[in-house]
Amino acid sequence: VQLQASGGGLVQAGGSLRLSCVASGLTFSSYTMGWFRQAPGKEREFVACIGRSGINAYYADSVKGRFTISRDNAKNTVYLQMDSLKPEDTAVYYCAAGPRFSISTKWTSYDYWGQGTLVTVSS
Question: Residue 102: what pLDDT?
Fold first, then answer.
C-alpha cells in the first residue's frame, strides 16, 4: 500500500493550497480517508476525514469553514482544499487510509499513512 501526498508549499496568510493524496495497493473506495497534521514540537492532530462514498465529512473545529475534504474514488485520490490559511496551519500534513466500516477522527484508527507534505504559512 502506498499513499503519495503532494501539494504542500509556502503560502502567505490568507492564501490557499490544495493537497492531493493518491493511493495504490488497496481498494480505495473501501476506506475512510483522513488528513492529519503535525507541527514542530506538537502531537499529530486530526484535520478532516471523509467516508467511503464521499458524502460524510468531518472537520476539526480549527479548520471548519476554511478547509474542504473531497475524494475521487475513480482516481483513488483524496483532496484537501485549504483556504484562508493561517500561520498556525503550518505543519506537515499526512493523508491516511482508515476504518473500512466506520468514520474516525483518531489517528490510531488509521492503517496506512503517506509520507507527509509540508505546508508553511507566513504571516
Answer: 87
For the chain, state the CA radius of gyration.
13
Among the listed residues 35, 29, 123, the one whose alpha carbon sits nearest the alpha carbon of residue 82? 35
pLDDT digits (tens, 9 = 90+) for 57-74: 999 999 999 999 999 999
Q: For residue 100, give the C-alpha cell.
A: 473500512
Q: Is the pLDDT of residue 18 over 90?
A: yes
What is the distance between the alpha carbons of residues 59 and 47, in angstroms, rounded to a whole number?
A: 6
What pLDDT score was predicted for residue 100?
Answer: 85
**What integer pLDDT is reported at residue 101 of this predicted model?**
84
Q: Strand pairing of 45-50 and 33-38?
A: antiparallel
Q: Is there a contact between 48 and 27 (Cβ–Cβ < 8 Å)? A: no
Measured CA to CA, the distance from residue 25 to residue 107 in angstroms comes to 20
Listed in sequence order, the residues at least 6 apart from 13 whose beta carbon sits closer than 8 Å to its beta carbon are: 85, 86, 87, 121, 122, 123
- Classify 107 as helix, strand or coil: helix
User: Which residues are CB-neighbours of 104 under 8 A, at least 6 positions away?
Assistant: 32, 34, 49, 98, 110
